Amino acid sequence: MDLKTTTVTDMIRWGVSRMREEHVHHLSFGDSDLLQTALYLTFFSLKLPYDFQNPIYLSSRLEEHEILAIQDLFGKRIKERLPTPYITNEYWYGPMSPQTKFFINKDVFVPRSPIYRNLKDFMKTIKWKNHRILDLGTGSGALGIILALLNPEVKVDLVDICPKALKVAQININNHNLEKRVKCIQSNLFMNVKNKYDFIITVPPQLSAEEYGDLVAESLHEPALSLRSGKDGLKHIRHIIDEAPNYLNPRGTLAAEIGPRLPDVIKALYSHLKLKWFKFKNKDFIFSWTK
Length: 291
Fold this sequence. Notes:
two-stranded antiparallel ribbon, alpha/beta
């Protein structure tokens, strides 16, 4: 690479080539061809607006120190297999346009559940009694914070077993000026929860021991607490389904994303419940249940 003539476009093309050569997994960030990852890391390093189509930016020649800084970011992605949000400590997620920005680090799972697509519809159908929401296993706080942003009348409790995760959630609460309506509670699922709620939302750990052993290198940087759920992947969701009625108001709703493998098992185990299923990529992925 000629350091004297290298442009922004050259760095993006170089980054894509290097990541593909090393078989980097996109881990739900951008596209599987890794172009979005290369665009984002390059523009992030240069502190440019994320206007990836702007010809003025793309044709700009880079100084040597800028090239080295970009290469350093790509090095973390390629050599260390760090998920992109752990490199930049930021991530955009949710149903709003533009998506909501969150602070992210290695203490929390990268929020990527497709349940965000259902959040606006859930908020329209909730039978509100006390306007309280519980985000169970919150991690970064993303889902609960988005719900608070969608409805200025609700109060949200963000619950997680991990104190480090709750520190991240609190940063995101502060970044969105929600301190008066959103609070953190350290708890192993419902153990320290005292309130009743109109809506409980959760994306619980859902991987079996075998599935966890098959994860790509990027996912192994994420907290195991947020991924593993006993031998069969059912430990957390079964506890949540069994206990949620005790923490819901009359006509309150539980919504959970449990991925593509567990729905058939849950349908068999809880055939007596009227679970409503929502598809993602033509597979049942998410369910809701109203008390």
